[in-house]
Structure formats: structure tokens, C-alpha cells
Amino acid sequence: METTLLPHWRRNIYLFLTSQFLSGITSMVVQYAIIWYLTKQTGSATILSLATLLGMLPMVLLSPFIGPFVDRFNKKLLLIVPDIVAAIVAIILSTVGTLQATFPLWLIFISLLIRSIAQTFQMPTIQSIIPTMVPTEELTKINGQLGMVQSANMIIAPALGAFLFAIVPLNFLILLDVLGAIIGISLLLLIQIPENPVIDAPLHVLSDAKFGLTKLRHTRGLWAITMTGAIFTLLFMPAASLYPLMTMGYFHGSVGQAGLIEAVYSVGMLVGGTIIGIFGNWKDRMRPILWAMLAMGITFGASGFLPGNQRGFIWFLGLNALAGIATPFYSTLLMAMIQQSFPPTQLGRILGVLNSIMSITGPVGLIFAGPLADSIGVEKLFTIGGVGTLICGLIMWLLPSARQYDVTLQQSHTLEDTEITKS
């Protein structure tokens, strides 16, 4: 897509990023508040793992079947309707929490499940929208800036959430989801989102999901990266789901310190996203991806050997800052490569399948994470996650199709541009 075909694209995309920033803060504050409530009330790794599992299941089970809707339906509605549903669920949960002394666990789990379903619709929609709103040569930088926005949310939300959690009852704090929905919907109405050409073929969810899977499997190199990413999720997600318990249980910290560790990690992500947003035009994006996996593996693995006291917590802060810097180089650069690998009219179906495959192993790990952490200690899961990350990075480096994928991809785009110029 040439810049000349997208008048005022920069103003449009930055308004979109602003909407994601403002609506994302409120949603994440509520999410953190719910997780901290569960940690404080139960202190159970099994309960936290179950809560995370419910948050991941919709991504795994529904993503392949949501892609066809993303490619066909109005994308604004696919962003707006989930916000409305999340706001309704927040009102119900707040009302029940006001009428009763405590929140029923079953209702909290249902609310987390519905919030995850809403996000499952929004994530592939946003991922497929970005390539239609910006020129191709700016795609990596804009993805980096989207990562910066998400990191900024993750910096502000834990600190703001910890402060509000201490002074505002949870039943009122949950209503921030309603405010976030109002802000997000209002800004989305002002944004111009290009729609894909109408697909005349009737909607067949199963065949469309098969189409996305076939396209992905026949993209040499990317399929290997996707399968390795699934193994990475299996080994990494159990530790990632137990951050609050690591801080409040192993290091004997407070809710404020749990918020601080999330904020420090997010500051690191913001730094990493800023580097990508400014210097995002790498000739081979697989190199920084592999270096990022090395850094993440070392920092997470080392976290499991720290002493369970406040001195260990200080080291944990430093290691998480480094891990945060590395994280966007894996997630953001990989997403930019995927977006450039397929036409925008096919992205919804392909991203739905890809997100499902890369997430499907997460629930498997989470099933064992809670009981395992309760028996051997939550810190051991960080060591397992770190070693697993290093193994996955080594696998990607050893596979030539994966290691050289971006070089091949950018060469093919260069040839296409040359042929278009000659014609």
C-alpha cells in the first residue's frame, strides 16, 4: 500500500492508537484488581492458574472461527460490540459485589471468561486493521508504536490499580470498565477504518478456518516459527500467570509491590517498543527476535534462583526490567512479519488460526502450573520457563527456514515492488 493511497493516514492511525491507550488503561486496572483480589483472598496458585486458564481458553477455542468474521464484517462493530458486552458484565459483577459481602468465585471466573471472549474478537481485528491503515514501509514502526501504547498501559495500570485497590472498594473499581467502553467507543466513531472488499462467497466457518490453516502451513519458515512459539507458550505461560504469587507469596511482598513489578516490566517493554518505533526498519528481523529470546530465557531462568526475601525482590525488579525490554522484540517484530506475509483480505482468517496455535499449549501448561507451584514452589516455574525459552530460541536458530524467513520475505517484497515499478 502506497502512502498516496492513504490521505491523512498518520492522523488517523494516531487517533486509533490514542483510543487503544485510553480504553486499555481502564480495562487493565480492572483486570489487575480482580487478580490481586483472588491472590489476597485465596493465596492459591491453583486458583490463579484457573483464572488465567479461563482467560486463555476463548483465544484457543474460538480464534480459528473468528477470523472469517474479521475478514467479512464491519471492523468498527467488531471492536465496539465487545466493549459493550464487557461493560454490561462489569455492571452485573459490581452489583452482585455491592449486595453481598464477598464476590462469588464462580461469578469472577465467568466475568474473566467473558472479558477474554471479547478480547478474542478484538485482537485479530486490530492486527488485521493496522496493515490497511498505514503504508507498508511504516508497518514495523507502527507496530512498535502500538507496542509502546500497550506498554504504557501496562506501566500506568498496575500503579494506578494498586493505588485504587487500596482506597476504592472492588465493587466500584470494576465500573471503570464502563468508563473505558464509553471512551473507546466514542473515539472509534471518529476513526476511518478501511474495509476489505466484500467477499462474495458465503460464510463457511470451518472451511474458512481450514483456509487459514492451509495458508499458514504452506508458508515455509513461518509454520516452523508458529510451532516453536506454541512450545514457548507451553513452558513460559505457567510462570507468567503466577507473577502476583511470586511477589506476594515467595518474596512476601505487598499488593503495591505486585503492582511495582508489573510496572517495571512494562517500563522495559516501553523502552523496547520505543527502540522499535524509532529504528524499526531492520533488514533481518529474525536476528533481534532470537537475541530477545536469549535475554528473556536468561532473566526468567535466573529469577528462580533468587532468595525469597526483599533483597531477592530487588534483583527480581532488575531482571524483569531487562526481560521487559526484550519482550517487544519478539512479539512486535514477529507480528509485523506475519502482517507482511499475507494480503489484508486474508489476514483475519490466518491470524485467527495462528493465534489459536500459539496459545493452545498455554492452557495445557496452566492445568499443571497451579498444583506444581503449590508442591515445588512458584520460583521453580520461572526457572522452567527460562530454560524453555532458551530451548525454543535454539530451535529457531537451528532451522534455516525459520532463521532466514524475514530475509526471504523482504527479498520477495523487493522483487514485487520492482516488477510493479517496471510495469
Short description:
The chain has 423 residues and is mainly alpha-helical. The chain has 17 helices and no strands.
Spans of at least 5 consecutive residues with low confidence: none
Question: What is the succession of H and E elements?
Answer: HHHHHHHHHHHHHHHHH
Radius of gyration over alpha carbons? 21 Å
Tally the structural domains: 1
Largest sheet: none
Could you name the CATH homologous superfamily? MFS general substrate transporter like domains
CATH structural architecture: Up-down Bundle
Average pLDDT metric: 81
Assign the structural class, choosing from mainly alpha, mainly beta, alpha/beta, alpha+beta, or little secondary structure.
mainly alpha
Relative helix content: over 70%
**Oligomer class:** single chain
Distance between the termini: 16 Å
Separate helix tally: 17
How much of the polypeptide forms β-strand, as a percent range? under 5%
Summary tags:
mainly alpha; 17 helices; Growth Hormone, Chain: A; 423 residues; globular
Structure explained in plain terms:
There is one protein chain. This protein has 423 residues and is mainly alpha-helical. The chain has a single domain (3-189, 203-422), classed as Growth Hormone, Chain: A. It is 83% helix and 0% strand. The chain contains 17 helices and no strands. It has helices at residues 9-42, 45-72, 75-99, 105-133, 139-167, 170-173, 176-188, 205-217, 222-240, 243-250, 255-278, 286-303, 310-341, 344-376, 378-398, 400-403, 405-422. The longest helix is centred in the first third of the chain and has 34 residues, at 9-42. The mean pLDDT is 81. It comes from Levilactobacillus tujiorum. Residues 12-404 form the Major facilitator superfamily (MFS) profile domain. InterPro entries: MFS (IPR011701), MFS_dom (IPR020846), MFS_trans_sf (IPR036259).
